[in-house]
Model the fold of this input.
Amino acid sequence: MTISRSNRISQIHSDIRGPLYVEALRMQAAGERVLKLNTGNPASFGFTLPESVRTALTEHVDEAVPYCDVRGMEEARAAILRYHRSRGLRDITMEDIFICNGVSEAVTMLMTALVGDGDEILVPAPCYSLWSNNVFIGGGVPVFYRCDPENQWNPDIADMEKKITPRTKAVLVINPNNPTGAVYSREVLLSIGALARKHGLVLLADEIYDRLVMDGLLMESLAALVPDVPCVTFNGLSKSHIICGFRCGWMVFSGPARALAEIKDGVMQLAAMRLCGNALTQLVIPAALADSASTEAMLLPGGRLYEQRGATVAGLSRIPGVGFLPNRACFYIFPGIDTRMYDFESDQDFALRFLHEKKILVIPGRGFDWHEDLRFRIVMLPEPEVLSRAMADLGDFLDGHRR
Done:
């Protein structure tokens, strides 16, 4: 007898830890060394958490023994409130903040409360699959709007509006973007806000990389630019403070209070059902948000993220038939390969051969719901010299696959 799985998960995918990742683990178990550039997990590449975070955790551990407020510890929510007010969100209170076990849980809770059968959510292509997967799980339909590689990976506003229907309920904006590393301008964000206002849509703003912006760019919070539009902003500490395993994320409701009252009540029900988020990790939120120096040091010349980007970009620029836009934030880059020059049948075929021949794991573009051309995401977290060698290996690999 075989018990069938739920039809709610029939369309979900998680390629970052999918079949290619499993194959890489098999290769490692067989004694092969694999460079895994599939997941943004800084501590796996020698990054360490800031001392401010370590101290906050060790000195306050006893405070995390009991259950806390289902929305999160008061001191932690107060720190989050101060942070988002400093980002321009004015009319928010402690009651608008929910601390969760990572942004992943925050997204799942929000989408469970928001998405019903047949509801449509506009999501970007390329897209971090956590979002499209949660639309599927809720019985909804992710409708992909195009981000344009010929326009610095900015959202195509005309394409976005064309895809709005009476069933559209919300529009997702991932800024800074994963997987492209793009940072959207004020003009682009205002245009998206205007669309949401015109069509009565909820804005979902994934801004977890807002502290990892390079080159002196200004990254503006979407909710702050359009305070009259209902918005839920997502953020957390996993990447900026090197504590992915802590699972420390949150969401903030803003805009007209009545517009999101039912959704927020639904999230409250779900938060109560799971009792509370991990209280240990909430202890570090005030200290982490007060400590920006450790994050900023990584982004300046001489800092690891800055130098790792430089090594990757320099290596890619020497490979014929590889096109890319340097990332302006995060630690991801999303290059494309000219299939007129090389013999790959698909992005999956490319990634699997690259893994087998050069022992380097990358994620094909389809893992981010991108199907226009052959692309793949590189996670730029190893030391610069390691990334330089990996890009040289990529060039050698492609030389062996010329048409």
User: Anything to note?
Assistant: The CA atoms of residues 213 and 329 lie 4 Å apart. The radius of gyration is 21 Å.
